[in-house]
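Journal club side-thread
Mid-discussion, someone asked how the predicted structure for our own chain would compare to the paper's figures. Pasting it here so we can look after the session.
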Amino acid sequence: MRSVQAVRFGGPEVLVPGEAPEPVVGPGQVLVEVSVVGITFVETRIRRGVDRWHAKPELPYVPGGMVAGRVSAVGAGTDPGWLGRPVLADAGATGAFAERVAAEAEGLIPVPEGLDLRAAAALHTDGSTATGLVAGARIAPGDWVLVEAAAGGVGSLLVQLARVAGARVIGLARGARKLDLIRSLGADAAVDYSAPDWPEQVRRATGGAGVDVVFDGVGGEIGRAAFELTARHGRFSVHGAASGGLTAIEPEEARKNEVEVIGIEQLYGFRPRMHEWAEQVMAEAVAGRVRPVIGQTFPLERAADAHAAIEGRTALGKTLLLI
């Protein structure tokens, strides 16, 4: 079957199309005919061999974890009722950039009526992560919420879910195209963080009060400046380091500023609830309260171009591979 492998650690060019053995479906598993593969920023870091939170896969490896498709076969002891159903499936730590994957039946998430496979793939895992982050930040109606990288896969959903929770939202991004997207998602303000005075723009948008919640997915200098904008008794929620380094906040500084820092370790506890949150965010999409932003799609053979678009900061919303 067709697949894409990372033949070494490095830039997008290490992703090479080729053939892979057909997956063997074991007891309790299903075979999924893959239609869509979701890509995350973390996967680009794993491909480079620089991600600090995941073990390096053994080379060569087939990247990717989450796919959307239809069940075409079931293993021993697996409910035959899965046959033909549209599902989200977890291929595991690797293995998704392929025409077919074997997945554990207990981890399957049915795709509800009214939602196509592309939308479902765009909502998970980014939508599950965003749902967990919003729950952990305890957003109250009327809160000011600042979302970094608000035009990305997770960020665009954070903007919408914060609005559903009754918050007033400021989205940060770079460039007019991304700022227009953020406004179209319902943000009260969109600020370009390439402008030297962007922190002042954020503060003015809140009437000088600062923000009650920050979703920090960038880290580095931007994360640090966002922390300074957090109001007393606010929450500073860390979920990424797109800049290459996490925002460094000393506990004593957080106490002095009366800001609760919700560290990136929160993500470690998300896995048991990802299934529940995926169903929740898909229900929000079916109801019309949330829409996945699919900014660009690529055929499987152009997986390298998909990774390059994400790393080059040109991608809007979610990037998908289509098979």
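Post-session note: The chain has two domains: 2-110+293-322, 126-269.
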